[in-house]
Structure formats: structure tokens, C-alpha cells
Sequence to fold (193 residues):
Amino acid sequence: MEDYRRMADAELISACLQNDKHAWDALIRRYSRLIYATALRFGTTPEDANDVFQTVCITMLHQLSTLQDHRKLSTWLITLTRRKCYRLKMLHRPGLVSLEQACEVVEGLHDPLASSLEAEVWVLERQQILRQAVETLGEKCRELIRHLYYDDQPASHKVAAERLAVSAASIGRMRERCLKKLKDVLIGRGFRP
Fold:
């Protein structure tokens, strides 16, 4: 499974299209946070976000072969998620939107939330790129970055050192090396931090 986490999206998609179950698992794992975060930002409940997630995954399973540019997978998934959220909101509150407005929103012809959502989409895409880059790092670097930056309450250097079974004095240098590796991965993927 480690090899799948390190694959670029294009490689993973190619493996998925050849019915590789492990590739599908890795692809869904890679993008699950993005799909959930997009759904939750639309104000869906956690239960509805789960439904949206399942629907998006099923749609991805059936329509992944139609994706022309594999580099745009995250954008495609955000668009799918937004459309599923729109449909869900319209089902729950049918009296608030005319049929014509509903069709326009679902088809993306008229998006009253586009201006505010463009910024959110940009942020979500950057977060996804960063998560993917972190996954390519060695285990110690992934764990250190998770403890220092991703945990709900980021760990102090002392606590991170205890969790990683290294000396507290080495955490600063280790963090510097790991962030340098992360930066190199991002630059290698064409991302300019």
C-alpha cells in the first residue's frame, strides 16, 4: 500500500482504470478529506457529508475514465461534490429554488456562490497538494509534520520528540530537513510555495 501512496495521480488513475482494487483504495483515501471538507463547507451535516462522499465515490468509479486531464482530478472532485451538495440542498428545501434555477445551478450555468467558493476551492486544492506531498515523505518526516502541524493541538518539540522516540534537541534539525524535503517535492510537482 505504501507504493500506492507515493504514486502520482496519473499513475494511480491508470491503475484504477485497470481495475486495481488497491489503487482505488489509495485514490479514495487520498481524496476523502477533500471531498468531506468540500461537503462540510457547504453547510451539510456530517451525515449528509457521508452521503455526498459515497455518491461522489460511486460517480468517480463510473466516470473516472471520462476525465481528460488527470492533473485536474481534485478540481473535478470538488465540482462533483458541489453538484451533489446542491442537489441535496434542493431536495431538502424544494420550495426555495425554482426548477429553472435548480437546473442552472446543478449544470453550473449559474452559480450564486462562485465568487466566494473560488477562493475556497483554491485553498482546498492547495491543501490537497500539500497532503499528497507529505505522503511521499519517509515515515519519520510524515509523523513529525503531522504532530507539529496537522494535529488539532500541535505538539511541542518535547512532545513530538517523545512520540517519535528521538531526542528533543534533534527535533529542530529534523523539522528543517523534513520541510526542505517537502519543499523539494512540491517544487518537483510544479507547485511554487
Notes: The chain has two domains: 2-112, 137-193. Residues 138 and 178 are 9 Å apart (CA to CA). Confidence is low (pLDDT under 50) at residues 93-115.
